[in-house]
Design a protein that fits this description.
Elements lengths: L1 E6 L20 E5 L4 E5 L5 H8 L5 E6 L4 H4 L14 E6 L29 E4 L7 E4 L2 E7 L7 E6 L4 E5 L14 H7 L5 E5 L7 H4 L7 H10 L4 E5 L7 H17 L5 E4 L5 E2 L3
Parallel strand pairs: 3-4, 4-5, 5-6, 10-11, 11-12, 12-13
Antiparallel strand pairs: 1-2, 1-14, 2-3, 7-8, 8-9, 9-10
The chain binds zinc ion (ZN) (2 copies).
């Protein structure tokens, strides 16, 4: 199984010389569990360049959305495979408060984009999860849990014979009000995964301003990785205001935090263009 990052930024794309190292595109992560299937988590601006590559092969594409906020869907109209005649593309979303996976095409209407969803040449189909929030795609098991985020959405766990990973973004581990998934359930769900990709948008001193916005603190995410005993943690959905230098500092502090807790969990920051092979 191979994972490659095409977009790691939260909220809005941030091109420029201060973000060139970690990258400025919004959320998009490619997971290739085997040679047959392509799983893509979120269609932020990073999906445009991924689409250029995928347009040259014929693998079936499964697009899994954490939720439908702009930064997770806005690259979709520029994803070349949706314009390929007969290309099979499946859309999946879960635990949204309104709409289903097909609602990502609502952005392709007259006032917002010249091509409408009905004019796409690919064979686009919506797939549903079962009552337990699970779907099996080829030899890959995909499980979901509801996010703690305004408007809902889902976190994903992928299990193959090779290894496991989880993609959980736009998730506030300790929200001030209503909670869809309490912390112990996350710990249970993520127990022992090889690679955890998790929202780590904010820092401790920012909490008073951002509590309830639906994102986690770096330190909360580190604690989750520790409690769930994951092998490797990747901090994700970087705040648009963070420069490369500030992200380097967050990484150094995070590694120090793990060392001070005598944990052998590897910590990295998600970075555009980087690949991992969990397991
Ligand atoms: Zn987001
Ligand atoms: Zn969001």
């Amino acid at each position: 199984m191979k994972v490659t990052f095409y977009g790691v930024r939260g909220s809005i794309a941030t091109p420029g010389k201060e973000t060139v190292n970690y990258g400025g595109n919004t959320s998009c992560v490619l997971v290739e569990p085997d040679d047959e299937v392509v799983l893509i988590f979120d269609a932020g601006t990073g999906i445009r360049s991924l689409g250029q590559l995928l347009a040259t092969d014929s693998r079936d594409i499964y697009l899994l959305f954490s939720h439908h906020h702009w930064d997770h869907i806005q690259g979709l109209p520029f994803f070349r495979p949706i314009y390929q005649q007969g290309r099979k593309i499946r859309l999946l979303s879960n635990y949204l408060n309104s709409g289903d996976a097909s609602s990502v095409l609502d952005q392709m209407t007259d006032s917002h984009f010249p091509v409408t969803g009905a004019q796409l040449q690919a064979e686009i189909e919506v797939l549903a999860f079962n009552d337990q929030g699970i779907i099996v795609i080829g030899d890959t098991k995909v499980s979901t849990l509801p996010l703690n985020h305004p408007g809902g959405g889902s976190g994903y766990k992928i299990e193959t014979a090779d290894g496991s990973l989880a993609y959980i973004t736009d998730n506030e581990l300790f929200p001030p009000d209503e909670m869809q998934t309490p912390y112990p359930e996350w710990v249970n769900f993520l127990q022992g995964v090889d690679l955890l990709i998790h929202d780590a948008m904010f820092l401790d001193d920012e909490l008073p301003k951002v509590h309830g916005w639906g994102h986690s603190l770096v330190t909360q995410t580190l604690q989750l990785a520790l409690d769930a005993d994951v092998k490797h943690l990747l901090l994700f959905h970087h705040d648009p205001s963070r420069t490369d230098a500030q992200l380097d500092e967050i990484l150094a502090n995070s590694r120090e935090w793990m060392a001070s807790h005598s944990a052998e969990i590897e910590v990295s920051l998600a970075r555009e263009g980087e690949s991992y092979q969990p397991g």
